[in-house]
Amino acid sequence: MDHLHINVNFASPMGKIKPMHSVNNGPAALRGNGNTEFFADAGIPFARTHDANFAPQYGAPHTVDIIAVFPNFDADETDPASYDFHLTDEYMENIMAVGSKVFFRLGNKIEHESKRYGALPPKDFAKWARICEYIIRHFNEGWGNGHHYGMEYFEIWNEPDLHPQCWDGPEEDYFELYEIAARHLKACFPHLKIGGPAVTSMGNRDYVERFLKYISRNPDDLVPMDFFSFHLYTTNPEKMVGHVKLARKLLDEHGYTETETILNEWNYVRNWTPREEILYSYRVIPSLKGSAFVNACMLACQHSSLDHLMYYDARVSAGWNGLFDHISQEPLKPYYAIWDFNRLYKLATEVACEVEGDDLYALAATNGEEAAILLTYYKDHKSIDGSGTEEEMRRVRIDWSGFASGDGVEVEYRFLDAGNDNRVVAAETFFGETGAHIFDLPLYTSILVTLKKK
Questions:
Q1: Residues in the chain with pLDDT < 50?
Q2: What are the distances in angstroms from CA 403 to CA 124, 346, 349, 411?
Q3: The whole model's pTM is what?
Q4: Which in 68, 112, 150, 268 has the greatest CB count within 10 A?
C-alpha cells in the first residue's frame, strides 16, 4: 500500500482562503419548496445568474436575461414601464435570503435551437449598454420601484467565442460591444466590478489574445476590465491550474495586472464526444467520484493565482447539477464537498500544508480558536463509486503543529465516502502542540478534520 503524508503548521499563515465554492444559480425556492436550507448551510459565497432563464424554479423564461427584462428593444430604455423586473427581483431576493451574493450576468442564456434570439448581437450597442445601466440602477439605486441590493459584480455576456449558440455574429462585434458597455458602465458605477468575457476555455487562446489585444490597443486608455472570466470542463484539476496560469500571464502581458481572474463555469467532463463519454460524465457529476473531483479542484485552485471559482450548476432541473437531487432537491455527494470547503472559508486564514504523494489534495485553515484540514484522494479512475478499486487504497498520515490549548484540543474526523456524508467517524483529544493520525484512504474519499480548543 502506497503511503501519503500531510504536514500542517497552524502557526504559519499563508493568506486568505478564497471563495472557491461559489456556484452558478441560486436556491430553488418557488412555491415554498426547495433547497434553501441546504443552500444556506453550505455558505455559498456567490451565485452567478447565467442560464437561470432555463429554470422554472427561477421564473423561466421571464427572468434575468436582457431579452426577458427588457423584452422590446425599441422601447424607451429610460422608462421603467419598458422593463419587467418582477420574477428577476424574486430570484435575486431568494439568493440573498440564504446569505449568498449575486454575480449578475448581463446577456442571455445559451441557445442550442435552430433560431437565435438572445444570442444575436444587439441592434444598438450604446442602447444595450444604457439598458444594462438602468438594470443596475434598479437593483442597487432603487430606480423603477427597485432596490438597494448592493450587487457588486456585473459580467458582459457569456461565451461570445461559442458561435452561434452564444454569439451569432462576427467576433469583432462582441469586442466593440464589450468596450462600449464596459466604458459606459464603469463611468456610471466606478465603484462596481465590471468584466467578462466568460470565454469557453483558455484553450481558445487565439480568441482570448485577439480580445485582449483589442481592448488594450491604447495602453494609456485600457478598456475597463475589473475581472476576466473564463470556463473549463475537464477531468483534471492540474489542467485547471494550467488554465489559471495562462489567464494570469496573458492579462499581465496586456496591462491588466490588477484584473481579477474568475473561473465561473466548471465541472467534470471526460469528453464532449462520443455519446458514451458525455453520458459517463453525467453519471460522474452527482457521484462520489464527482465529490472528490469538486474538492480536488477547489483545493488546487486555492493554491493558484485564481481569485474566484464558480461551479456549474446549482439549477435543480439541470443535468450539470451535482449538488442537489432534481426530484427531492436534497443534497448529493458533491454538495458535501462544497459544505466542507466552507468550513475552511469561514476560518479565513490559510496555513502551511505540505503534501507528499500523488493524487492527494489538501488545505488547512484557522482563526486561532478553531482549525480544519480538508483532504481528498482523487484521480480519473474508471470507477464512479470507488468500488473495485482496492488496489488504489492509500495510507495517509496527517501531522499538525502550532495549535495548542492547556485544556486540550478536541479533534473530529468527518468522512465523505461511499458510506458517509460528512459523518463524524472518530473523535479524540490531544494535549500539547502537535498531533497525528493515520488513515487508510480509499479512492475518492474526502476527510474534514476539525480542531477546537477546549
A1: none
A2: 60, 17, 14, 11
A3: 0.96
A4: 268
